[in-house]
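User: I'm curious whether this sequence folds into something compact or stays loose and floppy. Could you predict its structure so I can see for myself?
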Amino acid sequence: MKSLLIEWRHLDVEGDTCDRCYDTGENLTAEIKRLNRALNPQDIEVKFKETKLNESEISESNVILFNNIPLEELLDIEIHQSYCGSCSDLVGKDTYCRTIKYEGNDYEDVPAKAIREAAYKAMGLKPNASVQTSCCDSTSDCGCGSETTPKDFWHPVIDRETCTDCGICVAKCGNGVYDKSSPKKPVIVKPENCVDGCHGCGEQCPTGSITYTGDDTGWIPPHASKASGKEKNQDKEGALAMKKMFIYEPALCCETGVCGVSVDPELLRISTVANTLKKNGVTLQRYNLKNSPQEFVTNTEINKMLNSEGVDSLPATVVDGKIVKTKAYPTNGEIVMWLNISADYLVEKTDNSSSCCGPSSSSGSKKSCCC
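Assistant: Here's the prediction. I'll summarize afterward.
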């Protein structure tokens, strides 16, 4: 049996990595499963190797090798750099990280489609040609209209009867599956870009209106039973159902700690993130010992922690009633991961934005996080 070794090299700081690498890792995990299903029948085994880099090796971070050949060499694409706020937070200084230009678009992380194409090229193969048959017709509820797509090709299917056109799925997907020029009504324009096994948009859909062609995993839309189609369509904005985060902090001068002449940059960052999430409909609640002492008493887990470890354990982050981090504020990457949201939710909406969430950057670079 032939072997394809995919090596992913990325920054690791005490078990944490930056947002870009996190998203690439998510894409890799799903794509390797997909590649094994496709290539095993051709007598090819796909193996994975993860190499963790320290701060001095950050220039090599988020590099993917296919049998020791870099992805950019296989695809003949350009590599650039841009400021990475997440890495800057991790290493404590301004850091610039890799971006790639793929199919005319700038990506901060490595999209699933690029991983797939590079894997096939490394083995001297061509990706399986799509069967030119419509998965639906123009009157279907699928959402892809008359697009030509194999019937068993993994892609989302929209239930038009229950969909409220809230735009969450369009904002969530970074792989170009949905038409970004139609930020509210989900229109599927590139179903082949969907990452095999990804339920990202379906997990976020507040009305359970998304299922997937080719899905044999037993996955069930988590919010499918919340309301009838009639009730769902009464609210065109929908209601984003997701996890809630609470941060318990030591005594501060005010509710945010952002006051006075000298402001702690971490307090400024977490205050900005909390405000932006609130504007995007996501809960990140902060309590500090001076302004909200009762909250430290009523939360039994926090109270127990303080009795055993003292105030040095603060700040402490709680997600769905569980303490997930102590002695430091959560990084932006951790917030995205623990709340199971797109990094786009950390971008403040602007008045002229036509989407549920604002663009990830002014340069128009895309994120390819699937979930």
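Summary: Confidence is low (pLDDT under 50) at residues 129-152, 225-240, 350-371. Residues 129-241 form a domain with the Alpha-Beta Plaits fold (CATH 3.30.70).
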